Amino acid sequence: MKKTVICQGCWEQIHVPIPIRGPFSYLFKPFGIKKSQMHPNLCTICESMFTKVKKHKQIPIPVTILFADLRGYTDLSQQIETPEINHLLHFFYDQCSSAMWEREGIINKFIGDAVLAIFNFPLVRKDHVLNAVNAAIELQRNCHNIKKEIGLGEERNLGVGIGIHTGECFMGEVGTSYKDFTAIGPVVNLASRMQSAAHAGEILITEEVYNSVKDKFANTESRTVNLKGINHPVEAYVINY
């Protein structure tokens, strides 16, 4: 991934060149403006000053939501030592970040042993659905030998389950006393439920995602899943990689 001198989010959203690398970036650090943890080519304006930038607390935006989760983590955390658990999480977080950032997605949240990634804001990309699927494939490939990476035997049950959905979300700030930048709405909920239904080593996508990428993945297999909180069966597709 090529690292930029200015924040790509501010440039795309408000056409203002905010330095995040190089000598001029030091002039902004006293004001709390520095590289964002969500993406190396974004700044903290993108994650903490949404209302000031967009003039609204939340706005509707078409996005693709990806949830990834470590299957078997809870049981494993009760069986191995803390340093090994820390190494496992660091490895997983690093692989998630690398895969999402390479395809212009942002890491919106790390939630214990899970990650929420968002594609198409603030970095707007025409192929955000395909980018999310390709990021998921890279993450699964990079985590294929995750047990060997942290020195676990093959008898351990450990892997990554991924769910992806796309549609219109409300992006922006949530809360008043404590403000949080994130995506909210049914698209986020369904992506989370898809992730819960995915098996270790599996990428489960919704029909909306499949319709956007089916020409790239001819061998995709479908299955009907019943998801918690969704009162009707959902047609899902498994990406073969």
Secondary-structure arrangement, i.e. CATH architecture of the largest domain: 2-Layer Sandwich
Task: Please give the number of β-strands.
Answer: 8
In this structure, how is the largest beta sheet organized?
A: 8 strands, mixed
Poorly predicted spans: none
CATH-defined superfamily of the largest domain = Nucleotide cyclase, GGDEF domain
Q: How much helix is in the residues?
A: 25-40%
Reported by name, the CATH topology of the largest domain is: Alpha-Beta Plaits
- CATH C-level class of the largest domain is Alpha Beta
The residue-averaged pLDDT reads 90
The ordered H/E elements are HHHEHHEEHHEEHEHEE
Distance between the termini: 22 Å
What gyration radius follows from the Cα positions, in whole Å? 18 Å
Which shape, going by the Cα principal axes?
Answer: globular
Q: How many helices in DSSP terms?
A: 9
Determine the strand fraction and express it as a percent band: 25-35%
Notes on the structure:
There is one protein chain. The chain folds into 2 domains: 8-48, no CATH class; 58-238, 2-Layer Sandwich (Alpha-Beta Plaits). It is globular. The protein is built from 9 helices and 8 strands. It has helices at 8-14, 44-48, 50-54, 73-77, 82-102, 128-142, 146-149, 186-197, 207-213, and strands at residues 58-71, 105-111, 114-119, 159-174, 180-184, 202-206, 221-225, 234-238. The protein is of the alpha+beta class. Helix 5 packs antiparallel against helix 6 (128-142). Strands 1, 2, 3, 4, 5, 6, 7 and 8 form an 8-stranded mixed β-sheet that branches. The longest helix is centred in the middle third of the chain and has 21 residues, at 82-102.
